[in-house]
């Protein structure tokens, strides 16, 4: 009996130890899983932060690049206006003439003629048309494919047209304004200039 009782006690003790070890192993597994989940969470947050930083850096670089390109274009335009060798003295009634010479890039020249506020819009437009006849025959201007001329009276742009230089054919037997208009496309015209054009029979391409 004593031997049997001892064996029973031994079995109970071994079972208790096994159960305890199983519980400890289970707890250890749970801790490992929790640690792994925690590591994944930290890694995910780190990746999110890194992605945000990368996107911000890309955005900053893109904005800086756009600003640089804008400055370069602005400086180029200013240089074209400042360094142009084109003679604008033919616009004798103008208060000021601005020239953007882009022959080297777009084969285009833009001229803005600021006329006296004392002139009517129609008369100002006619003066500039007549003077464009001589202006376009300069060798420098002939190098451009197109020439845009804008007429300003005060702060208002009353007339604007673009001449295709290849279509311009001087003709001393025709009115100068008509010859210029024949090679041009009218892009802007005020009501006053429109009325003036009807009276004087301008034939305009639009």
Q: Can you describe what's shown?
A:
The protein is α+β, with helices and mostly antiparallel strands. It has 2 domains: 21-83; 94-200, no CATH class. Helices cover 57% and strands 19% of the residues. It has 5 helices and 5 strands. Strands 1-2-3-4-5 form a 5-stranded mixed sheet. Helix 2 packs across helix 4. The protein is elongated and about 105 Å long.
**Any idea what the radius of gyration is?**
42 Å
Helices and strands, in N-to-C order? HEEHHEEHEH
Q: Biggest sheet: strands side by side, in what order? A: 1-2-3-4-5
- How many domain units? 2
**Number of helical segments with 4 or more residues:** 5
Strand content: 15-25%
What gross morphology would you assign?
elongated
Number of strands: 5
The biggest beta sheet reads: 5 strands, mixed
Average per-residue pLDDT, rounded, comes to: 79
Helix percent band? 55-70%
End-to-end gap: 124 Å
Unreliable runs: none
Derived structural class: alpha+beta
Quick synopsis:
With 206 residues, this protein is of the alpha+beta class. It folds into 2 domains: 21-83; 94-200, no CATH class. The protein contains 5 helices and 5 strands, in the order H-E-E-H-H-E-E-H-E-H.
List keywords for this structure.
206 residues; single chain; elongated; alpha+beta; five-stranded mixed beta sheet
């Amino acid at each position: 009996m004593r031997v049997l009782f001892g064996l029973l006690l031994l079995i109970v003790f071994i079972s208790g130890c096994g159960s305890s070890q199983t519980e400890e192993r289970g707890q250890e597994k749970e801790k490992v899983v929790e640690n792994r989940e925690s590591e994944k969470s930290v890694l995910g947050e780190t990746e999110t932060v890194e992605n945000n930083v990368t996107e911000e850096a890309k955005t900053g670089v893109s904005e800086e690049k756009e600003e640089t390109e804008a400055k370069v274009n602005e400086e180029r335009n200013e240089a074209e206006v400042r360094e142009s060798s084109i003679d604008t003295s033919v616009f004798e009634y103008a208060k000021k003439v601005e020239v953007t010479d882009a022959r080297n890039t777009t084969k285009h020249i833009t001229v803005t003629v600021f006329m006296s506020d004392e002139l009517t819009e129609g008369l100002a437009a006619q003066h500039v048309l007549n003077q464009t006849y001589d202006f376009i025959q300069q060798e420098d201007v002939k190098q451009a494919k197109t020439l845009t001329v804008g007429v300003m009276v005060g702060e208002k742009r009353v007339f604007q047209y673009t001449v295709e230089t290849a279509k311009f054919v001087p003709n001393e037997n025709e009115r100068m304004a008509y010859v210029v208009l024949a090679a041009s496309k009218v892009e802007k015209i005020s009501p006053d200039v429109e009325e003036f054009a009807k009276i004087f029979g301008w034939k305009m391409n639009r």
